[in-house]
Amino acid sequence: METVRYGIIGIGNMGHAHALSLLSEIKGAELVAVCDTRTERLEWAEANLPESVQRYATPTELFESKSIDAVLISTPHYDHPTLAIEAFQYGYHVLIEKPAGVYTKAVKEMNDVAAQTDLKFGIMYNQRTNPLYQKLRDLIQTGELGEIRRTNWIITNWYRSQSYYNSGGWRATWAGEGGGVLLNQDPHQLDLWQWTIGMMPKRVRAFCHIGKYRNIEVEDDVTAYVEYENGATGLFITTTGEAPGTNRFEITGDNGKIVVEDDTLSFWRLRTPEPQFNAEFTGGFGSPECWKCEIPVESGGGQQHKGILRNFTNAILHNEPLLAPGEEGIHGLTLSNAMYLSSWTDNWVDLPLNEDLYYELLMEKVNSSTFQIENAVSKTLDVTGTH
Amino acid sequence: METVRYGIIGIGNMGHAHALSLLSEIKGAELVAVCDTRTERLEWAEANLPESVQRYATPTELFESKSIDAVLISTPHYDHPTLAIEAFQYGYHVLIEKPAGVYTKAVKEMNDVAAQTDLKFGIMYNQRTNPLYQKLRDLIQTGELGEIRRTNWIITNWYRSQSYYNSGGWRATWAGEGGGVLLNQDPHQLDLWQWTIGMMPKRVRAFCHIGKYRNIEVEDDVTAYVEYENGATGLFITTTGEAPGTNRFEITGDNGKIVVEDDTLSFWRLRTPEPQFNAEFTGGFGSPECWKCEIPVESGGGQQHKGILRNFTNAILHNEPLLAPGEEGIHGLTLSNAMYLSSWTDNWVDLPLNEDLYYELLMEKVNSSTFQIENAVSKTLDVTGTH
């Protein structure tokens, strides 16, 4: 194979941006088809994409066309697992948008099907291309920070006005998105939270506030506390209601602390690891000598979406290792599912998650919903720089 | 009255520093007596204080001497309320060290007695003299920040080694101190947390970890989540086990956010208050214009302990308003009591606190304790710059 022939399912906000990238910026990739169930999006494709790009009104037509090698799934979240499973069954490589799905029960089925194929399976975790988080992961995985003791991510700069929510009736509903800030805005941070430190919590206690700042039926403000197997604790604090908000990720370990904020990474490194200092020190008051280290990090935020498209294409063509294997999408989703479940039951949630209970309670919310956003207008928004 | 004649009860770590201040640095104050039940501390007083300073082995002898106008109580925490009540009954003005006590039930009794006198009652909340927190309070109380939405204090730079805990057998025990990091290290932050924002939570959910980093029987690591009546949420994260730790207090309001960290205060101020922006904006993605404002704050940390001693002295002599009225000591203590209770019951704690239940559970811990610190050596530590 010399080029990967891509079909995109869903050419709304994100999908149409991927289409333009695949057309011109990804070596070894060829956009041969797009698919959308909305007439106006196919009209957009007709007007804006080369004639050679086939247009389909249903995924089945696209799958049956046999004109593609790989499919990029950029539909509403609920459909990611079902479409991915179908695509694998047709023998296509699959790249899904984040989140992996809405509930882990479906995502696990998708992962099981993927595991039975030799096809490539990726997820659009474009923030994994960000040199800041790559360096953070490096410092942790190579032991520079030592054993992790605390993680604390304040990610409250996802400001969204009511106007944003009114731009689509499916937005911020249980039936449409299956959640709010955790499902739409936070999937990258939920992934990076576990990817950089290399561990998942063992239990979660979360506090989700529904429609606190906006007229929506899902959460727009969350505080989640977690405990890890090794005794470490963690916090994840997020909202779409605050401006300007904060994006600050602090991680403490035996050898000091790291803070990622304002596009910089700072490492306060102890000269002696804290446990050793504590064992040897006899002076009453006193603490380990600490050096504030400037860690070099490549600027610019990395290749982002295009980096994932390049990596996925190279994985198919040259067996390049995937930066964001699709199977790993379940981790971030498990975290958000656990946060909802903890909030709904007003109690601890242990991991592995009770995925059947979660699905049952989610479906209750979907089925009992009477919520309608007033004056909802369906719009494809310009998402430049927002995801 | 031209000078206030002070007696100090307890001349250990803090009390002996106050003695030296009163001797030479507080206009209108005169140190006339000290009291300590420990012979070695009276010997220290004999060797280091002027002969004119009387020495007493019991508070009763000091009270009966009738040689003083005011008493400064700098004993172990449990004794603050009982000694204060006794001092009021003798007709003395009372300044207590922090915390106000160990459990609010006793502190409320102290407050009730104080309310029945015309005597001055103060608490050594020296951090209230810090211009940073005074400015923060000013910006909030004058409405510059708008309605509060979130408070988040990461106060993890209270590093204490095992050597510190071994310096006194009473340290970090239920019977000796009645708690750990919340009772010994955090009383200032717990006070400032509510004093600067001007409100107390309505409920608390906290996670206290006992002896996580040190061989102690009380907590050395706490994460507490709170909810306020106005819908705001808050976090308080603290430990003695981390180095170098963090001291970062972030407060979000309708008009932006303030961060106090590294001895600076930064105000990200929205040009238009967020609720107004949200009501008027129709553009989908978009957020209020934000100005990062450099707020002038006097440097140097304020007069600290000496500022409280001066203010208390002037309150007696010239009726100067108290910066830290003793009655307000109950607020910070209520917060820590509620955190323990939430953790012990693994559940929410509503405020006002069930103070009888708290007292009962605390006494169970005191009475069932079999804990002994190995190699405990009683030492008076040099506390310069640590409280």
Q: What would you note in describing this structure?
A:
2 copies of one chain form a homodimer. With 387 residues, chain A is an alpha/beta fold. Chain A folds into 2 domains: 4-125 and 303-325, Rossmann fold; 128-301 and 332-368, 2-Layer Sandwich (Dihydrodipicolinate Reductase, domain 2). Helix content of chain A is 35%, strand content 23%. Chain A has 13 helices and 15 strands. Chain A has helices at residues 13-24, 39-48, 59-65, 79-90, 104-115, 131-141, 162-165, 181-184, 187-197, 274-280, 304-318, 329-345, 355-368; strands at 4-9, 29-35, 54-56, 70-73, 93-96, 121-123, 148-155, 201-210, 219-228, 233-239, 247-253, 256-261, 264-270, 290-294, 349-350. In chain A, the strands form 2 sheets. A 9-stranded mixed sheet of chain A has the order 14-13-12-11-7-10-9-8-15. In chain A, strands 3-2-1-4-5-6 form a 6-stranded parallel sheet, with helices on both faces. Chain A is globular. The two termini of chain A are 31 Å apart. The mean pLDDT of chain A is 95. Chains A and B meet through strand 7, helix 7, strand 8, strand 9 and strand 10 of A and strand 7, helix 7, strand 8, strand 9 and strand 10 of B. Chains A, B: One of its GO terms (molecular function) is nucleotide binding. Chains A, B: This is Gfo/Idh/MocA family oxidoreductase.
Keyword list:
homodimer; 387 residues; alpha/beta; Rossmann fold; 2 domains; six-stranded parallel beta sheet; 15 strands; 35% helix; globular; nucleotide binding (chains A, B)
